[in-house]
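Hi everyone,

Forwarding the result from last night's run.
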Amino acid sequence: MYSGRMETADFRYERGWNQHLIISASLSATIRDIRDLCRAGNQRSRGFQFAFSMTGGTLRPMGQQKKRVVVLGAGFGGLTFCQHFDHPDATVTIVDRQNHHLFQPLLYQVATAVLSAPEIAQPVRSILSDRPDINVLMDEALDVNLDARTVRLKKTTLPYDYLVLALGGVTSYFGHPEWERFAPGLKSLDDALMIRRRILLAFEQAEAETDRTIHNRLMTIVVVGGGPTGVELAGAFAELSRLVLRRDFHHIDPAETRVVLIEAGPRLLPQFPPELSQSARLQLEALGVEVRTNDPVESIEEHRVQLKGECIEAENILWAAGIAASPLTQSLDVKRDRAGRVMVEPDLSLPRHPEVFVVGDMAHLIDVDGKPVPGVSPAAMQMARHAASQIEDELSMPHPERRPFRYRDRGSMATIGRSAAVAQMGQLKFAGLPAWLAWLFVHLIFLIGFRNKVAVFLQWAYAYLTCKRGARIITGLTADNKPPCP
């Protein structure tokens, strides 16, 4: 950097690991020309600053504004974008209504008292603390004006040159929003802590309950949805009652807990091969879970699930059956699928708006191989890296060719319980203890933060060796859900 008072300037450009390019240039003539132009326009010369843009290979004024990149959402997609995007001619602002990044694959373990909340979450500012070019805002996005290139937040409005939509999904009740009151979903730490509180509180109330009908209802848990989340919840609750809590109560037997898993389709885990779906069902039934397939829910009321020809009374009903894109997609004048996901171009951009990229659960895409991109965290991370490289290319060269996104499927896993899981990696399919060990290893690798990795590993080792769980504290009690006084 140099000003109008300087006669010469040296520039240093580092390329690769060992190469250094030193450029020396005399700028006196250029500076005199600029001064003459200023005088001709009757403007006062106050000095001018320049910078050498190595990516473009041209001189640009320091006053020229850097490109503004706005990222909505600090989940897997948004955070991965920020970690991989790095360009000297751009600044990044990431916006999320929470101050933390949540490792959602382990969220069910907070709900089932295996882990505590801080062990699967980390502040976004802490994760990105070594990136001064990234601004972190704790705010909620309300809508996007594509024509004006602005994002309206609750507290302010952000202009952008590039926008990355990575807000993920929300729980979908398939046209029955009234069910949410009686059957909460699992998408946030608040959801997990609330579910854990209700489950543990039900056992405490059953300990003092003398009415057999109410007692049976308190000891019944219904999980709706036979996907990975539903399977993991059902298996974890069965283990919690039969292995962990059975020694803690004197007047009830938690092993008598009834855990019912309901799936409207013909089999559990429909994204897995049929043989692994059957293996998952057998492993769940070995834990005492009642598995109902081809049995869609007709209605849900307080403590009651109505099936075709049967009504199940349950104190706790949990919803793990559907997901929809963030409601923000409704503010976009673009085509969406039935789940509200945006129909994006092959390069992940919006039609007619190449400056807007959509990643993760908000995007509907058939990739270049003709396969639909699933709404899973590895896909969101791959999409985010693709969007980051696309924007970097456009900032580094005049008119780069947009590349289509190709999803690389690394495999799928679902854990069921202690030494029980199913997994598929390419053509390799396995279940039981090997799949469970693979699941543990993969999730430890992707968990953010060394402290979190160590804490989770120690909690898993403690739970496996002792059949106990250390996160069984009931908090957040109000006058409406306190147990009755003895």
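The chain has eleven helices and 29 strands.

Cheers,
N.
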